Task: inverse folding
């Protein structure tokens, strides 16, 4: 998972607007009926997310703020293998990555700020676990 995070966050850090992914991932497909079923089942959650998150504090998700998010995601990708050794710490990394993703999609800088705080706390816990 850390490699995938590094692959996408690294591209974000270098300013790419369209991500390159390996053909094995890009060429995957799904049957139309399964896709329709998945969309129907996830629609309530998507509607809830759409009501909850909205464009705000957009300065945190564009320009220098976008690079800060990319750097935070790269740090998470680098530390993620180590976090597997600490019980439940990878959950905080996953939560931060999910929050960053939603923040970028919804243009929600407030959520990006929360994700940055989660990232800092997670990194501090890793450092404390190994050095104190």
Result:
């Amino acid at each position: 998972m850390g490699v995938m995070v590094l692959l996408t966050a690294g591209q974000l850090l270098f300013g790419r607007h369209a991500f390159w992914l390996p053909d094995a991932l890009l060429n995957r497909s799904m049957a139309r009926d399964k896709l329709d079923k998945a969309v129907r089942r996830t629609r309530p959650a998507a509607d809830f997310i759409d009501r909850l998150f909205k464009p705000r504090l957009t300065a945190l998700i564009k320009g220098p703020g976008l690079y800060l998010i990319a750097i935070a995601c790269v740090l998470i990708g680098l530390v993620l293998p180590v976090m597997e050794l600490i019980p439940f710490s990878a959950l905080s990394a996953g939560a931060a990555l999910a929050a960053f993703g939603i923040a970028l999609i919804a243009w929600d800088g407030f959520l990006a700020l929360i994700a940055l705080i989660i990232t800092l706390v997670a990194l501090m816990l890793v450092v404390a676990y190994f050095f104190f």
Notes: The chain has one domain: 2-131. Residues 2-131 form one domain. The mean pLDDT is 90.
